[in-house]
Known about the structure:
Number of strands: 0
Radius of gyration: 42 Å
Largest sheet: none
Strand content: under 5%
Shape: rod-shaped
Helix content: over 70%
Order of helices and strands: HH
Amino acid sequence: xxxxxxxxxxxxxxxxxxxxxxxxxxxxxxxxxxxxxxxxxxxxxxxxxxxxxxxxxxxxxxxxxxxxxxxxxxxxxxxxxxxxxxxxxxxxxxxxxxx
Length: 99
C-alpha cells in the first residue's frame, strides 16, 4: 500500500481495525469509583455539617452565659433601686416632718 492509497481509504479507527470496547472493565471501574466518590462527598458534607453545629453550640453557650449575666445584673439593680427608694422615702418623710 502506498501513502496515497492509505489517504484515499480514510482514517482508520480502532473499531474498524477489529478492536472492541471492553464494557466489563468499564462497568467494574464505575462500580468501584462511583461509590467511593459518593462516600467521600457524604463524608465531607457531614464533616462541614458537624463543624457548623459545633459553631452554633459555641455561640449558643456564649448567648446563654450573657443572658445569665444580664439576669444577675438586673437583680442587683433591683436591689439597689429598692435601697434608693427606701432612702428617698426617708428623705420625703423628713421633709414632711420639718415642713
